[in-house]
Amino acid sequence: MKAANIDSNLANNWAMALHLSTFAAYLVPIAGILAPILIWQMKKDEIPNLDAHGKIVVNWLISAIIYIAISLLLILVFIGIPMLLVMSVLMIVFPIIGGLKAGNGELWPYPMSIRFFK
């Protein structure tokens, strides 16, 4: 399928699925990382703007791993526990907001996300 043949609703649904696929980690731990990357890489050439959504999600995944690692180290000085709690909430809230915005055709860069892919 060429990019011109994809209607906007289908493109928005794929973008939303890309954001929400991070929740696959609750079923199979590594799936929350692999599913978004696979969707992004398989569909980015077919669907306009999906490349931008994929970069946002993968940047967030890498950023979240870094923030969690820092939080785990900071548990030794007790600040890590609240940081882990905040990260737990953000790892649920950001993909939901991103998915809802993507469903409406909007691009929402996650706050606090380090831009590894531009």
What's a quick, concise take on this entry?
By secondary structure, the protein is mainly α.
Pick out the low-confidence regions.
none
Kindly name the structural category: mainly alpha
Alpha carbon gyration radius: 15 Å
List the total number of helices.
4
H-E order? HHHH
Note the main sheet.
none
Average per-residue pLDDT, rounded, comes to 92
Residues in helices, as a percent range: 55-70%
General form? elongated
- Number of E-type strands: 0
Structural overview:
The chain is mainly alpha-helical and 118 residues long. It has four helices and no strands. The longest helix has 25 residues, at 50-74. It is elongated. The mean pLDDT is 92.
Structure characteristics:
single chain; 118 residues; mainly alpha
